[in-house]
Amino acid sequence: FSHLQKKRRAATARRQHLKSAMLQLAVTEIEKEAAAKEVEKQNYLAEHCPPLSLPGSMQELQELCKKLHAKIDSVDEERYDTEVKLQKTNKELEDLSQKLFDLRGKFKRPPLRRVRMSADAMLRALLGSKHKVCMDLRANLKQVKKEDTEKEKDLRDVGDWRKNIEEKSGMEGRKKMFEAGE
Hints:
single chain; mainly alpha; 182 residues
């Protein structure tokens, strides 16, 4: 029995060691990646943004401003174009993933269990602590008094085919119906 415990401890220790080694490796990789991104950023800025030298005269300064405005406009157009391209590719990706989902077949719904839940419990589950209204569904029902008027009685008696069904059943009932002229 103690032999198995020693094996388990060794396996656990090995697993912990591997886990810490993997985490250390991941940390170094992340640091390398961040340094590479920083170098790439510096190279891009050096290539696309030359150092700014401010001229002395007013005329040259105005020319520089015009050039900068033109550059800003071209960058804005470029940014807009790339945004539109990104939106198009995202839409295509969405469509393709939907097609893939459709091609895979029908989505099987998991078997759901019926749960008896009152309206209050349902609202409490949906809204959480915001739920303050008590919903007693039967409390707001209108009380109705049964009043039979003569007209309603006549309509019901004429329209009710079940009326006197016992009297009309069998041979005696048929004889009565024949004699009554029904």
